[in-house]
Amino acid sequence: MTQTATDPGPFPPDSIEAFLRFCAGEWMSLRSRFALEDPAAASADVEAAAGDEWHSSERGELMVTYLEPEAGGEPGGLSVGPKGEPPRRLHFTADGGFRAGDQRGSWQLWPDGSLELTLTAGERELRERIWFTKPNLRLRSTLESAADGSPSRASFCSEIRRVSRPAAAAA
Questions:
Q1: Is residue 68 part of a domain?
Q2: What pairing do the DSSP bridges indicate for beta strands 103-109 and 97-100?
Q3: pTM for this prediction
Q4: Which domain holds residue 103?
Q5: Rounded to the nearest 5 degrees, what angle is found at the Cα of 63, between the Cα atoms of 57 and 66?
Q6: Buried b / exposed e across 40-79, counting CB within 10 Å, b at 16+?
Q7: Other beta carbons less than 10 A from residue 146's beta carbon
Q8: CA distance readout (Å), 31 to 5, 19, 53, 121
């Protein structure tokens, strides 16, 4: 069966390869970001800490392309980036790992159908969870924490797949 942006395949996806293929498309995104660090520790500027600088929201368009596996038995990958900008490539391995450039992380497809990605860099850990509530609606949450487990930044995205209407049948 050939999958398209209007027919990404069976829902919900039940394997890492199916999940990655399901992500392909053009997505309209609304992201809310939150700074969770202790304002007193993060900034000496008390006035700034008391303002609205701890959160922001932005709209955007995200382009996601499925990348065929580099080797047999592998699930493939994703090319992801804001529309009009160079994408970031993520290559997944069947053993639960992935790489994005020179960074390496791990993935887990949970029984609830969500995909969790984990990257550790120095004393920071970044966890991102992606899940679909409907075939053309997905949600993403990210949480960055310090080595002691304290959260520093978080974001939440709701993304709607851009689909085009079928061409009208010729009369």
A1: yes
A2: antiparallel
A3: 0.81
A4: 16-161
A5: 135
A6: eeeeeeeeebeeeeeeeeeeeebbbebbebeeeebbbbbb
A7: 13
A8: 22, 21, 15, 23
Which tokens is 70 given?
A: 């580099």
Kindly write down the DSSP assignment for every residue of 49-80, as one continuous string: HTTTTTEEEEEEEEEEEEE--SSTT--EEEEE
Quote the number of domains for the chain: 1
Tens of pLDDT, residue by residue, the chain (171 residues): 444 445 667 788 989 999 999 999 999 999 998 887 654 444 444 444 455 677 788 999 999 999 999 889 999 999 999 999 999 999 999 999 999 999 999 999 999 999 999 999 888 999 999 999 999 999 999 999 998 888 889 999 999 999 877 666 554
Q: What is the H or E stretch that residue 12 is in?
A: none
Q: Domain for residue 22, yes or no?
A: yes
Cβ neighbors of 127 (< 8 A, separation 6 or more) are: 116, 117, 118, 142, 143, 144, 145
Task: Take residue 126 and report the two structure tokens written for it.
Answer: 């970044």
